[in-house]
Design goal:
With 751 residues, the protein is of the alpha+beta class. It has 13 helices and 47 strands. The protein has a seven-stranded mixed beta sheet, with helices on one face. A hairpin with a 4-residue loop joins strand 3 and strand 4. The longest helix has 26 residues. The two termini are 48 Å apart.
């Protein structure tokens, strides 16, 4: 909903030079060198939620609201359902793909790897998506007598946008030079003639027809760049012509079968392929400054009429003097191996956007010029230039490594640059031991090459570590060495600090210092990328009491750090395996904690519910953290169709039963224990529950009905059953004192 509002506001603001004027300044003056631009139309999906005489149901608040919609582009209001200006038949079956477009979209949605996956599959058959036109630029208003069909976003009774090459003349303005408009019409007509013959099996003849169009477009681009057009007209036209040139090159590459792959290799010369064919060898995912690496460029052309002219390597950062070497191949099927040395000043391949904490709702950009890219560019790319009918056709690709993975076998992953050493601390946050003993700190050094040196901790004033520093020696790439320190806070640490204290690990080796570690995130289908974190541990003293004799079993769901917090409290949990859950034998523990979304992620958990209920009846404590859908419990409870959440982390929390032992023992919980929470109060608050449960709290976002289903407790038999939807799993790694005190009381409920 917010993104829809932003789209309309962006439509209105994009052509306004007074909006973000600093972006329009030249790069030499600290700006981005951008120009204003004018979007031609902005649409939004017509709301699919039903509108009745009660209005429209607002699932964010769980209430019916008046059906009124603001047009943020014009400032006008619409009462009732916005008009349908365009309908797209998304249920149309594609005869080549064998599915409808909405079915393909649902499959794409299913590639979402978090938030419990995608939507359910949809059946074949008619389906439409309806769009409302919020605004249209004057130059895109449909002319009288234009196409009246309402099944096209670009051409309908209200919008007329010429999407042909000839239509690019609009970028110049109302006074288009006749020769410019004529050339655009010629290129457009030529492309239409080629397209009318496709699909076809005779690739080379079509390529020969496309080549003069390519030449004309290249010449036209040169003429535009050298013309007196100037200003935004030239900028916009060159942008579109470059896109068209890329499309024509792509078509020629496909027609001529031009192929390029570049990858790192251990080989120093090209070997002939065996009976399985030629292929890459497995190589490290990354290189480090000062390291040598061999890169093989393999370029081929299926058509004998396309001739390889040259191959070369490029880097995105000119200040990093990677070589730009070229080779003259002896034959069209060319293989070249380059031996490169990574410059000492090469920066790690890492995101160009960072933020100091989750509390900052935007990112700081280290490279504003990369704005709009998913990540900073990969460090090394290979290029090949072919010649066809006297015209250059370029093919480029990021240099790859080859990795072995279970199932697919060998897969390509882009080469990255990392520091020679990485340093990480485990865990990244932990409260000081409750018994006053030193805090154990584990530092792990991992190497990209053989290295040795020392590690020391940067501590708050008055703190000390044992040992003060520790040596390490790593024999080869991939080696790691864990180092244990014991940290004691200074005497001034006696009162609980207002904010966590930071401990930083620093590794020294070969005259360099390293204080970050990294982790590759991704999976087949999503290129892995390294995320960097400082080798830092946050800690603080928390005044919290815990009942004695607690033995905790933990059933992990989709993943959280609550077990680390339990260990910090002095009750290290046992993580239950699937076999242990299925066995139903829980007598080893007197407390079982169910992780977030475990009932969705661990199907064996619901099958073991009878054993869990028996565990509680015999005196055990079962603590269930928030779940994403309805789940079994000793007494009935319901989340509702759209489980409620409270997103304001500072929303007031009212304690409903001050005498309940969950509130009083062993820590006296007050509303202050809900101070300084991060991200949210919680989600999946219960919608209804059996009278056997006692609700202990109440909270709500502004405009939301009071939510009392965030912490409920019942006592089946001799035991205790607790459901808690408050986001303890977010607060514990953030070292929020109240979260530890609340968790301690939940764990101590059986005592």
């Amino acid at each position: 909903q917010v993104s829809g509002e932003i789209a309309q506001e962006a439509f209105k603001a994009a052509a306004d030079p007074t909006v973000f004027p600093e972006q329009l300044k030249p790069v030499s003056e600290g700006g981005l060198g951008l120009t204003v631009w004018q979007p031609l139309a902005v649409y939004g999906m017509v709301p699919f939620a039903p509108v009745t005489d009660k209005g429209m149901f607002d699932y964010a608040t769980g209430k019916w609201a008046p059906a009124k919609f603001k047009n943020y582009a014009t400032g006008e209001w619409i009462t009732g359902v916005p008009s349908t200006d365009v309908s797209i038949a998304v249920g149309t079956r594609n005869p080549v793909l064998g599915r409808s477009y909405v079915q393909i979209a649902r499959e794409g949605w299913g590639m979402q790897k978090s938030q419990n996956g995608g939507a359910n599959p949809t059946l074949s058959g008619p389906a439409d998506t309806h769009y409302h036109l919020w605004a249209v630029a004057p130059q895109a208003v449909a002319k009288p007598g234009a196409i009246t069909t309402n099944s096209d976003l670009f051409h309908n009774s209200r919008v007329g946008i010429d999407t042909t090459v000839a239509g690019l003349a609009r970028l110049v303005g109302p006074d288009v030079p006749s020769d410019l408009a004529g050339t655009l019409r010629e290129i457009d007509a030529s492309i239409s003639r080629v397209e009318s013959k496709c699909p076809c099996n005779a690739a080379s003849p079509v390529a020969h027809e496309l080549a003069p169009i390519y030449r004309q477009t290249l010449d036209f681009r040169t003429a535009v760049a050298e013309s007196s057009l100037g200003g935004q007209a030239m900028t916009s036209l060159l942008l579109e012509l470059d896109a068209k040139i890329d499309q024509i090159q792509s078509a020629l590459r496909n027609l001529l079968g031009l192929d390029l792959i570049a990858f790192t290799t251990h080989a120093t010369k090209v070997e002939d392929g065996g009976f399985r064919g030629n292929g890459p060898d497995e190589t490290p995912r990354s290189v480090s400054p000062g390291e040598e690496v061999n890169v093989r460029i393999h370029a081929t052309a299926a058509s004998p009429e396309a001739h390889l002219v040259r191959t070369w390597l490029t880097t995105p950062n000119p200040e990093e003097s990677w070589p730009n070497r070229e080779a003259e191949p002896a034959a069209p099927a060319a293989d070249q191996i380059f031996t490169l040395k990574v410059p000492e000043n090469t920066k790690p391949t890492q995101p160009y956007f960072t933020r100091p904490s989750i509390e900052q709702p935007y990112y700081d950009l280290t490279h504003p010029e990369y704005r709009g890219r998913s990540f900073a560019p990969w460090p090394l790319a290979a290029w090949a230039e072919f010649s066809f009918d006297g015209l250059p056709i370029r093919v480029g690709q990021v240099v790859q490594t080859m990795q072995r993975t279970l199932g697919p076998g060998g897969i390509y992953e882009p080469l990255a640059v990392t520091p020679t050493l990485g340093v990480r601390m485990e865990p990244e946050a932990r409260i000081l031991p409750l018994d006053g003993s030193p805090l154990p700190v584990r530092v792990t050094v991992h190497a990209q090459a053989a290295a040795e040196g020392t590690v020391e901790l940067t501590l708050p004033a008055g703190w000390r570590s044992q040992p003060a520093s520790a040596p390490f020696k790593l024999a080869s790439a991939g080696d790691t060495e864990p180092i244990q320190f014991l940290v004691s806070p200074g005497a001034a640490e006696a009162p609980a600090p207002a904010v966590p204290s930071a401990i930083q690990a620093v590794a020294h080796s070969a005259g360099h210092s390293y204080q970050t570690g990294w982790q590759a995130v991704g999976y087949p289908g999503l290129n892995p990328y390294n995320l960097y974190k400082p080798s830092q541990l946050l800690t603080r003293k928390v005044e919290v009491k815990l009942a004695p004799g607690l033995k905790v079993g933990y059933i992990m769901g989709t993943g959280d750090q609550v077990p680390d917090a339990l260990e910090a409290l002095g009750v290290p949990p046992h993580l239950l395996s699937s076999a242990e859950i299925v066995s139903g034998e829980f007598s080893t523990w007197n407390i079982l904690v169910v992780g977030i979304r475990a009932y969705s992620a661990r199907p064996e958990l619901a099958r073991a519910q009878a054993s869990l209920d028996e565990f509680v009846r015999r005196g055990g404590t079962l603590i269930v953290q928030y779940q994403s859908s309805d789940f079994p419990a000793p007494f009935p409870l319901k989340l509702g169709r759209n489980p409620e959440r409270v997103v304001d982390e500072s929303a007031p929390v009212k304690l409903l039963n001050l005498e309940n032992t969950l509130i009083t023992y062993p820590n006296s919980i007050t509303s202050n224990d809900f101070n300084d929470w991060v991200e949210e109060r919680g989600h999946s608050f219960l919608a209804s529950w059996d009278p056997a449960y006692t609700a202990l709290t109440e909270t709500a976002d502004p405009g939301q009905d009071p939510q009392r289903g965030g912490l409920v407790v019942a006592h089946p038999g001799k035991g205790t059953y607790i459901y808690v939807s408050y986001a303890l799993y977010r607060q514990l790694p953030a070292l929020v004192p109240g979260a530890y005190r609340i968790l301690a009381n939940l764990l101590s409920a059986g005592k």
